[in-house]
Each structure stands twice: as structure tokens, then as C-alpha cells.
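Lecture notes, unit on protein representations.

Consider one protein chain, 400 amino acids long.
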Amino acid sequence: MGALLASSALHGVKAGEQPAISDDAVKIGLLLDMSGPYADITGPNSVAAAQMAIDDFGGKVLGKKIELLSADTLNKPDITAALAREWFDSKKLDAIMDVAATAPSLAALEVARPRNKIVVLTSPASARLTNEACTPTSVHWTYDTYALAHGTGKAAVKQGFDSWFFVTADYTFGTDLEKDVTRVVREGGGKVLGSVRAPLNTLDFSSFLLQAQASKAKIIALANGGNDTVNSIKQAQEFGVVQGGQKLAGMLIFLSDIHSLGIDKAQGLVLTTAFYWDRDEASRAWSKRYFEKTGRMPSMSQAGTYSATMHYLKAVQAAGTDATDAVMKKMRETPVNDFFATNGRIREDGRMVHDMYLAEVKSPSDSKGPWDYYKILQTIPGDEAFQPLSESRCPLVKKP
């Protein structure tokens, strides 16, 4: 009897009460890019990562089944909003564990906010998700444009690359990333010579790269992601950008991008990442299991999806309910300590603060084989990597 009472107290449920799980199941969802430019970064393998977390948790929480829903948003905010409304209103979804891309994420937050539903974001980049768009029930988990700018951008300026030209994805993520990097460049004494906007899912970057070459900037910064990054780097090589004395800076690079490019074409690229599979014993052990399931090593977003899903399920168990406010309280109270992050914490603006890493792509001769791509140059402590609360534009943050 004493053990039963202790167990009930641990889970936040009074003796004799049943755990308060709505609709007899805990339901979580993923709104992803399954076939477009971000499919390698998120897509089916993010679904696999979330399912791994559910399986590792035992498939049930508080004796109730854990259900996973997933859908392709085609990176369109209107489709994302419609799916989120259907899931929350008709399918009684408890939480969304990721929404691919910034603009769809903003749409999902607007649907979740009045319904008091949890949204955890592991793949979108814009720092506005924890600034103007922050909500009491949203968490930005993996990385953001502020961290990318202060990692890669600051390192490049320190090395003397003080003139920049941007090839920028023409939507929210790209323009936010360009803005954050521009600030870092100027604070470091550098200057921005210009920028050009390229539509999402561009196949031919020739006109944009010609403008970048003509600027004579020391750095051509690619403020894009996924297939757009891969295509722009490949075409920049065809145009002889690096041979002509300019340097490419991929402001958002994923491991899958390097795999698609080939290490011979990507060698020397400096990047900022939230996760690398070969960082330590814990990351290697988890990534090996992920590889056995998917045939690929994880992107930082896919690793973040597992980490966030597991953290959410642990919070449901600790709260003794899937009720939003109780679960969010546990999520905020509990440090994140796993293969993804050490002593991570969720701030009042929704930012999950953790270390980031400045890395360089190895040369083919230094690589020991497939997926052995990064050399970690520097660990960036979380409090330095992410925007300080003193600069926050989130209305939930209390100013001194």
C-alpha cells in the first residue's frame, strides 16, 4: 500500500484517483515536409525518431496508449493551420512535436494559442518563435537564427571575412536569418554589400550567384536551407566562386546536406549545429540505433524530435495527466539531460537553452568513412549561443 501511495504521489495523482488522460490516449503529432526541400531534414525520418521515443518509453504513459499522427504540410501555412485545427478539434490531439519551416510554424502557433495546446518546434529556425510569436505553451527546441548567426557569423568575421553578400530564401526564415547575421557582421566591424532573394525550392541559382560574385564580397552567405542550400553550393562550385577568391558560408547546414553534396564538395565549410552524432558516447549509441532503423545518421532536427518527444512523455508521467498546464509546468521544471543536451532548460520565452557547436566539414582524407563529416571546433555554451532574455521581445518575459 505504501508503494502505491508513493507511486501516486510521484505522478501527481491522489490515491484512489485514475490518471487524468483525455480520450483514453496521449496523442501527439508531427506536421512536416515529407517530399519537399526539407524532407531530408525532417520528413519520414523525424516520424521515425518520434516513434523511437514512444517505443523506448514503452508505448504507453500512465497505462494509456501513446498515438502518433503525421502529415505533409507541403510547407504551406494554410494547409498547416487546417491540419492543426482538425487534429486539435476532431482528433483531440494533445501536443504537436514539430512543424517544419518557420511560416507553417507561425500558423500552427496561432491555431494552438486559443486552444491552450502544446507545440514543440524542433526544425524551424526563426528566433521570432521565442520573441514576438512566443506563447505560454510553445517551446523552441533545437536551434534558431540567433544561434546560427552568433556561431558561424561571428567566427567568420573574426577570421577577417568582413564583407558579406546574402543569397536569401524569400520567406520568413530566410529574411530573419539574414537580419540576425547582418547584425552580428556589423557589430564585428564588417559590412553587408547587398542581398538577393531566391524563391523557396529554386532549381537554378545562376542569376543570384552572378550578382553575389559581382559584389566582390569576401563571404557569400547562403541564408537558405535543405535542398536550396545543396543546390546553391553545387552551382556556386560550377561558377568557380571559391576558386575566384570568395568564400561560401552556409548559415544553416545539416548533416544530410553534407551527405548529399559529398564531402569532397563540402570540405572546409564552417557551420553551427545543435547536435552531431559522433560527439560523445551517448550521441553515438543513440545514433547507431537510429541508423539501424532508418539507414541514415540523424539531422539535428531529427535528434531534437526524439529528445523533445521523450521530454514531453516524461512530463505527462510526472504530472499524472495530459492536461496542458500541468504538463508544461513539468516540462519547464525538469532539466533536459540526454544524448542531445546536457543541463538544457526551458525558459519563460519558450527557448530550450543548451550548448551549440561550431564545426568544420572534414577533408576526404580526414574522414574515416560515410557520415564522419564534422570536426568540432568549439562548444558554444547555451547562455552565449542563444539570445539573452534582456534582449527578448517576448511579452511573457518580465523585464527588470
